[in-house]
C-alpha cells in the first residue's frame, strides 16, 4: 500500500467524549456519532492541522507510545487511517 | 373525519380521527381523566380509516395513518381499533417528535428522581413499570421516556399502559376494574388490555424527574445484576432512541450526559416479584 | 364542516404566499395547517416562513423544533455530497448536485427548512460506469431490487438503480439525464453539465436557468405531482431570487427551456407559482391556460387531516406521468408488470 497522505478534520469539527473504554466522537460536519476504541482517538489527536502521512504519524505517536521497535507500525497505521477515512473523520489530502 | 378526539399525553397534543365511532368511544373512556385544552393546536395527527369507503360498512378493517405512514402496516379488525390508535400515536411520536430525545423505555419516579428501564418488547419493562406504578412510584410511561436536551431531565409520556398476555392477569389482580380497557384477544401482538394510570400520575405528567438509575431488564433466567459501563449504555440507548440521529449534537450531548451521570445495570429476573425486588435493591443503593 | 370554511391546504398555501396573517388563524385552524404541512413534507418550510410571526405558544415551540431538526437534516444531506466528492474526485469524475442538496449547497432561500431525501447527482453519460464503480468501492451498495426493476432502470431510466451507503444508510441517485431516456422530451444533459456553476463551498450546481428548468421538469414532466406544492415553492423562490439579481433571467430561462424542450413545463410552473404563491412573473409569462385548472386541483387535493382527496385525479396524474416517461406500448407493459406484482 502506498503511503497515502491524510488530512484531519478542521478545528472544532469533532466533539470527543470518552465513555469508559469507548470514545464517542460527534462529527459536526456529518452530524454522525462514531464509537471508537484506542488507538483511534490517539491517532486523531496526533494528526495535527497539516497534511500527515503514516511516517510522520508514527514518529509523533512514538513520543508518547512505546512501539517496542515493531516494524509493522506504519502498515497498521495506514489501515487505521483508511478506516478513519471511511468514517469521514479524516480525508485523503 | 367523522369522529375525532383530542388527547394530551405528556408534552404531545394528539388529534385522532376515525371513520368509525367505536375506537373514539374507547379512547374517550381510557383518556377521560387526562387534561383537556381545547384551544391547543395538535402537534400530531392520527387517522383511523377504511381502505375503501364501502369497507367501512361491509367488514370494517382499520388502517392507521396520519402524519407518518408505514406502508406495510397491516389493517386491523374494528374490534382492535384501540390498538390501531395506540400504534398510530406511537408512530407519530417516534418519527415526528423533535423537542426531546425519545427513548423506547419505561420510567417511574420517586422523590423527583427517575428510574428508566430500556429493553426489547418481552423484557418486561412495561410490566415492571406498571406494577411499580401501583406502589410507591409515579408511573411516567410504559413505552417512551423523553429526555430534555437542555436540562437533562426525564419527562413523562404516560399514555394508557398497554398490558400484554400474562401481564394482564398480574396487573388486573391489583387494580380497580374501572381502570382497565376492553380485552383485545389474539391481536398481532397477542392479548392486549389497557390500564389507565393512577390519577396522581396523570396529574403529575408535566413534572420532570432527574434520571437516577438506568436499568436494562431481561425477563427469564436466575436473578442477576450486572453493572454496565458508560460506553455500552450509550450504544444501547442510541439503539433504543427513535430520534437520536435526527437531534444531531443536542442528542449526542443529552446522551453522553445521561450515561455519565446515571448508574446503569443489566438485570435478569425469573418473575415480576423478583424483578421488583432487584429494582428496589438497586434504587436503595444509588441513593 | 361548513361549505364556507376555507380548507386547511388553502390556508397553508396562503400563509406561504403571505396572503394571510398567522395571527388571524383560529386555534383549531392550526390542526389542519400543521397536518397538511407535514403531509407535504413542508412543516419546517412553514416554520421558517413564519419565524417571528405572532403564533400560539405551542405552535411556536413546534416550529422551533422543526427548524432545528431541519438544520441537522440539511447538514447530514450536505455531508452525503461531501462523501460523494471524496469518492468521485480522485477518479476525476465531475458531478453536479441536483434538487434539495443543490439548493442547500448554494444557500438558496428555498433551502430554508426544506426536506432533502436522497442525494441526487448528475454525471456525464460517458462517466456513468466509472461513477458506479467508484461509489461501490467507497461503500455504496445496490438497494435490493427485483430483476425487472433493475432491467427497467438500466434500459429506460435516466439514472442508475438507487445505491445505498452500507454504514450511513443514505441513498444516492446517479443521473445521466434529468428525464428518462424514454420520455418524449430529452433535455440536453451535456449542456446541463458543461454550463454548471460552482456553489460557495465548491460543489457544482446547475446554472440558474437550468436549475429552474430542472425544477419544473421534475415537478411537471417527470413526477405525478407528488410533492408538487414543495417543488412549486422551490420554483417560485428560485425564479424570484434569480430575477432579482439578473434582469435578463426570464429571457435566459426561456432560451434554456427551448434548448431542453421544456417550455411547456417551465411556463406552466411559472403560471402555477403565480396562481398559488402570488409570484410576479415577467411579461410574456402571464398567460392563462385552461388545463392549469386540473393541476391546481391536484395540488390542492388534501383534506383537513392531510389525506389526499380525489384519488381518481391522483391516479390520472400517475398514469399521465408514466405516459410522459414512456411510449404507450411500453407503458402498458410496465403497468402490467407492476400490477401483477401487487
From TrEMBL, chain A:
Protein name per UniProt: HPr-rel-A system PqqD family protein
Cited InterPro entries: PqqD-rel_X
Q: Which domain of life does the protein's organism represent? A: Bacteria
TrEMBL record, chain B:
Judging by the UniProt lineage, the source's domain of life is: Bacteria
Q: Which UniProt keywords apply?
A: Kinase, Transferase
GO function terms (MF aspect): kinase activity
Give the matching InterPro entries: HprK-rel_A (IPR027600), P-loop_NTPase (IPR027417), Sigma_54_int_dom_ATP-bd_1 (IPR025662)
Instruction: Give yes or no: UniProt keyword Kinase.
Output: yes
**Keyword flag Kinase:** yes
Name of this protein: HprK-related kinase A
Q: From which organism does this entry originate?
A: Sphingopyxis bauzanensis
UniProtKB/TrEMBL annotation, chain C:
Domain of life, per lineage? Bacteria
Q: Mind telling me which InterPro entries this protein's record contains?
A: NTP_transf_5
Put simply, this protein is called: Nucleotidyltransferase
Q: Which organism is it from?
A: Sphingopyxis bauzanensis
Amino acid at each position: 500500500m502506498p503511503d497515502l497522505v491524510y488530512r484531519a478534520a478542521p478545528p472544532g469539527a469533532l466533539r470527543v467524549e470518552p465513555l469508559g473504554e469507548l470514545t464517542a466522537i460527534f462529527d459536526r460536519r456529518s452530524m454522525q456519532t462514531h464509537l471508537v476504541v484506542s488507538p483511534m482517538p490517539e491517532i486523531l489527536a496526533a494528526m495535527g492541522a497539516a497534511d500527515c502521512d503514516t511516517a510522520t504519524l508514527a514518529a509523533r505517536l512514538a513520543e508518547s507510545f512505546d512501539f517496542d521497535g515493531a516494524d509493522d507500525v506504519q502498515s497498521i497505521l495506514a489501515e487505521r487511517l483508511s478506516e478513519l477515512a471511511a468514517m469521514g473523520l479524516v480525508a485523503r489530502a | 373525519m367523522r369522529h375525532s378526539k383530542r388527547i394530551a399525553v405528556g408534552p404531545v397534543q394528539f388529534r385522532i380521527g376515525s371513520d368509525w365511532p367505536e375506537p373514539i368511544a374507547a379512547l374517550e373512556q381510557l383518556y377521560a381523566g387526562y387534561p383537556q385544552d381545547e384551544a391547543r393546536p395538535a402537534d400530531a395527527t392520527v387517522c383511523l380509516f377504511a381502505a375503501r369507503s364501502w369497507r367501512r360498512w361491509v367488514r370494517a378493517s382499520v388502517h392507521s395513518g396520519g402524519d407518518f405512514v408505514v406502508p406495510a402496516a397491516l389493517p386491523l379488525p374494528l374490534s382492535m381499533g384501540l390498538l390501531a390508535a395506540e400504534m398510530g400515536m406511537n408512530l407519530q411520536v417516534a418519527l415526528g417528535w423533535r423537542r426531546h430525545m425519545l427513548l423506547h423505555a419505561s420510567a417511574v419516579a420517586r422523590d423527583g428522581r427517575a428510574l428508566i428501564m430500556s429493553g426489547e418488547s418481552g423484557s418486561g419493562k412495561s410490566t415492571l413499570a406498571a406494577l411499580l406504578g401501583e406502589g410507591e412510584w409515579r408511573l411516567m410511561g410504559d413505552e417512551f421516556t423523553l429526555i430534555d436536551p437542555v436540562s437533562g431531565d426525564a419527562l413523562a409520556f404516560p399514555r394508557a399502559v398497554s398490558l400484554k398476555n400474562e401481564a394482564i392477569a398480574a396487573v388486573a389482580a391489583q387494580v380497580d376494574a374501572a381502570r382497565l380497557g376492553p380485552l383485545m384477544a389474539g391481536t398481532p401482538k397477542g392479548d392486549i388490555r389497557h390500564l389507565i394510570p393512577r390519577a396522581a400520575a396523570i396529574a403529575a405528567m408535566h413534572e420532570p424527574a432527574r434520571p437516577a438509575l438506568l436499568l436494562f431488564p431481561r425477563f427469564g433466567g436466575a436473578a442477576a445484576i450486572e453493572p454496565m459501563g458508560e460506553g455500552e449504555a450509550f450504544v444501547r440507548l442510541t439503539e433504543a432512541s427513535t430520534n437520536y440521529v435526527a437531534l444531531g449534537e443536542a442528542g449526542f450531548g443529552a446522551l453522553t450526559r445521561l450515561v455519565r451521570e446515571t448508574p446503569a445495570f443489566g438485570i435478569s429476573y425469573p418473575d415480576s416479584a423478583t424483578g421488583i425486588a432487584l429494582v428496589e435493591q438497586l434504587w436503595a443503593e444509588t441513593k | 364542516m361548513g361549505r364556507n370554511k376555507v380548507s386547511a391546504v388553502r390556508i397553508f398555501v396562503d400563509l406561504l404566499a403571505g396572503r394571510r396573517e398567522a395571527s388571524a388563524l383560529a386555534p383549531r385552524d392550526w390542526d389542519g395547517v400543521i397536518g397538511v404541512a407535514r403531509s407535504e413534507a413542508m412543516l419546517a418550510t412553514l416554520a421558517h416562513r413564519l419565524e417571528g410571526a405572532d403564533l400560539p405558544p405551542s405552535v411556536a415551540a413546534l416550529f422551533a423544533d422543526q427548524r432545528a431538526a431541519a438544520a441537522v437534516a440539511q447538514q447530514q444531506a450536505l455531508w452525503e455530497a461531501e462523501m460523494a466528492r471524496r469518492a468521485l474526485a480522485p477518479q476525476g469524475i465531475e458531478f453536479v448536485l441536483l434538487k434539495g442538496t443543490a439548493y442547500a449547497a448554494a444557500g438558496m432561500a428555498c433551502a430554508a427548512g426544506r426536506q432533502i431525501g436522497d442525494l441526487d447527482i448528475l454525471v456525464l453519460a460517458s462517466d456513468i460506469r466509472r461513477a458506479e464503480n467508484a461509489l461501490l468501492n467507497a461503500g455504496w451498495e445496490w438497494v435490493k431490487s427485483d430483476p425487472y426493476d433493475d432491467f427497467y432502470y438500466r434500459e429506460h431510466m435516466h439514472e442508475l438503480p438507487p445505491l445505498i451507503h452500507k454504514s450511513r444508510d443514505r441513498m444516492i441517485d446517479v443521473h445521466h439525464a434529468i428525464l428518462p431516456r424514454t420520455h418524449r422530451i430529452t433535455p440536453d444533459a451535456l449542456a446541463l453539465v458543461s454550463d454548471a456553476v460552482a456553489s460557495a463551498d465548491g460543489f457544482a450546481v446547475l446554472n440558474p436557468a437550468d436549475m429552474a428548468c430542472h425544477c419544473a421538469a421534475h415537478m411537471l414532466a417527470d413526477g405525478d405531482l407528488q410533492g408538487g406544492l414543495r417543488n412549486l415553492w422551490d420554483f417560485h423562490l428560485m425564479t424570484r431570487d434569480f430575477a432579482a439579481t439578473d434582469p435578463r433571467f426570464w429571457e435566459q430561462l426561456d432560451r434554456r427551456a427551448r434548448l431542453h424542450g421544456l417550455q411547456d413545463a417551465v411556463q406552466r410552473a411559472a403560471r402555477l407559482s403565480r396562481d398559488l404563491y402570488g409570484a410576479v412573473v415577467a411579461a410574456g409569462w402571464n398567460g392563462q391556460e385552461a388545463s392549469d385548472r386540473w393541476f391546481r386541483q391536484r395540488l390542492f387535493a388534501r383534506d383537513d387531516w392531510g389525506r389526499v382527496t380525489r384519488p381518481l385525479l391522483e391516479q390520472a396524474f400517475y398514469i399521465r406521468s408514466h405516459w410522459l416517461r414512456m411510449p404507450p406500448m411500453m407503458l402498458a407493459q410496465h403497468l402490467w408488470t407492476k400490477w401483477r406484482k401487487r
